[in-house]
């Protein structure tokens, strides 16, 4: 019999499961694709029962074998999400997702007035934005009083899975640090007076580190025996950083996925009004983080727009398009933008189009737009005092090499790519292995390659395009904000 750990990550577009032995070798992996619900512009939700059903389905597929013994379970998921449940632990409404959901603008403005925006930033380490949980709780309490009357507890994807498996009600410190303004970043605890002001009647969970044990499986689940320990888990980007060893002081993790995420681990509190200061995934660590609202989501959109063309074909075509996309600049703000723009009403723009442009140019422009966004985030982090000594890339977007190469050419930075880049599910498995031993991520997942800027491409056209990218946002804001207003209020848009 082989001792294994089972890691599951709930992402924006899919849930991934992986079975790993205690040396870090992958014995099996599987994916369950899903779509989020967008009931109206700016609202992005998901039924939490889907997360549980996919966990059970993945366990049934991957653990239906006679040669393994599941010793621990790891969980992680997109976040920070806002899932409210009743006394019986049942969701009272679909979960409100992370910063891609921009519904709570009015609540952000009100809470800034009531609590003081400077006070919130000083105490919580981050300004209120679409990423923050607090305003979304306020939105639910104000807009859905009947739902709020039944709500008792706050969960996220990882803690929901841990709760369903063990009955435990617990949240990791990192996820809590993204519940602005409910969490004190300095004292690393809830702020009871602000919690009572924003979310009266909600019992906030006890806090632990992501790799600690949440509890033990209470009832056997599709190959996971009763009594199996389950970790507390955390938000996917931080689990991704763990998966490739990108969680040491000075490391910057770049997560290539449906959205792009950046996590820099620092040895002290570093703050920026346009970034997020958080607790790290491991005890004693802190992070300065950023996230774009779309990245892979735009490439998927283009694939559908062009008639469900295989993305591999589009990437190959984009590789043949010239750097600079033959004179195109795209703003990738198709779902607003998170850091460092912090503008939920930003919108996608494609400038420079002519009748001579091809879908290859558009695809290249989308990849370059993400790279410009990464550069904007990195420059903002460095200006705030970030400590970036090593960059580690992870996620499905690293496959094939084109996207990371464009990012390195645009930023002028090297990126390390580890042997295994499947991401958060592997990181969750690694954390789970810590319950039964002392695993070493460098041995589990060593570095395999380095992406270096191409001297023939880096600088030059990309420096010009990056300047144009920055100017394009500033010069189109009045129009895009007006269009966003029309979209959000239903003018000229057919909304439910």
Q: How would you describe what is shown here?
A:
The chain is globular. Helix 2 (105-124) runs antiparallel to helix 3 (133-143), helix 8 (236-243) packs across helix 13 and helix 11 packs across helix 12. A hairpin with a 4-residue loop joins strand 2 and strand 3 (26-33). The strands form eight sheets. Strands 18-19-17-16-22-23-24 form a seven-stranded mixed beta sheet, sandwiched between helices. Strands 3-2-1-5-15 form a five-stranded mixed beta sheet, with helices on both faces. Strands 4-7 form a two-stranded antiparallel sheet. It is built from 15 helices and 24 strands. It has helices at 48-62, 105-124, 133-143, 145-150, 157-166, 173-177, 192-198, 236-243, 296-305, 311-320, 359-384, 402-411, 424-433, 441-444, 461-489; strands at 2-10, 14-21, 26-33, 45-46, 68-77, 83-85, 95-96, 153-155, 171-172, 183-184, 189-190, 207-208, 213-216, 229-231, 234-235, 251-256, 260-266, 276-279, 286-291, 329-331, 349-351, 390-394, 415-418, 447-451. The chain has 496 residues and is of the alpha+beta class. It starts with a strand and ends in a 7-residue tail after the last helix.
């Amino acid at each position: 019999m082989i001792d294994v750990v089972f890691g599951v990550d709930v992402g924006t577009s899919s849930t991934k499961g992986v079975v790993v032995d205690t040396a870090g070798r992958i014995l099996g992996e599987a994916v369950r694709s899903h779509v989020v619900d967008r009931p109206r512009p700016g609202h992005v939700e998901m039924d939490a029962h889907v997360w549980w059903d996919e966990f059970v389905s993945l366990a049934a597929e991957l653990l239906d074998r006679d040669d393994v013994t599941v010793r621990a379970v790891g969980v992680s998921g997109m976040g920070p999400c806002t899932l409210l449940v009743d006394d019986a632990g049942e969701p009272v409404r679909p979960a409100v997702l992370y910063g891609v959901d921009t519904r709570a603008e009015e609540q952000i403005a009100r809470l800034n007035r009531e609590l003081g925006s400077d006070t919130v930033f000083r105490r919580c380490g981050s300004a209120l934005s679409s990423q923050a949980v607090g305003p979304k709780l306020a939105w639910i309490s104000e807009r859905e009083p009947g739902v709020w009357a039944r709500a008792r507890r706050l969960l996220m994807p990882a803690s929901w899975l841990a709760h369903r498996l063990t009955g435990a009600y617990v949240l990791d410190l990192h996820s809590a640090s993204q519940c602005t303004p409910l969490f004190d970043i300095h004292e690393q605890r809830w702020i009871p007076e602000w919690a009572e002001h924003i979310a009266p009647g909600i019992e906030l969970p006890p806090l632990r580190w992501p790799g600690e044990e949440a509890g033990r499986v209470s009832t056997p689940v599709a190959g996971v025996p009763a009594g199996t320990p389950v970790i507390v888990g955390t938000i996917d980007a931080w689990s991704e950083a763990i998966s490739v060893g990108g969680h040491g002081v000075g490391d910057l993790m770049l997560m290539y996925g449906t959205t792009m995420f950046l996590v820099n681990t620092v040895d002290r509190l570093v703050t920026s009004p346009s970034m997020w200061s958080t607790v790290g995934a491991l005890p004693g660590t802190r992070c300065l983080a950023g996230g774009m609202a779309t990245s892979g989501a735009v490439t998927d959109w283009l694939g559908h727009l062009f008639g469900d063309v295989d993305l591999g074909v589009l990437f190959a075509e984009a590789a043949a398009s010239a750097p600079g996309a033959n004179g195109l600049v795209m703003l990738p703000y198709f779902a607003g933008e998170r850091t460092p723009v912090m503008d939920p009403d930003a919108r996608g723009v494609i400038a420079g189009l002519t009748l001579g442009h091809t879908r290859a140019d558009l695809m290249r422009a989308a990849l370059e737009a993400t790279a410009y966004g990464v550069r904007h985030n990195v420059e903002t982090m460095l200006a705030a005092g970030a400590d970036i000594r090593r960059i580690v890339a992870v996620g499905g977007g690293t496959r094939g090499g084109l996207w990371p190469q464009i990012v390195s050419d645009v930023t002028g930075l090297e990126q390390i790519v580890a042997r295994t880049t499947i991401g958060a599910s592997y990181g969750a498995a690694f954390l789970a292995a810590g319950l039964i031993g002392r695993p070493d991520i460098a041995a589990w997942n060593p570095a395999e390659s380095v992406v270096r800027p191409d001297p023939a491409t880096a600088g030059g056209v990309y420096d010009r395009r990056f300047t144009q990218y920055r100017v394009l946002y500033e010069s189109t804001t009045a129009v895009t904000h007006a269009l966003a207003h029309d979209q959000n209020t239903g003018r000229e848009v057919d909304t439910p």
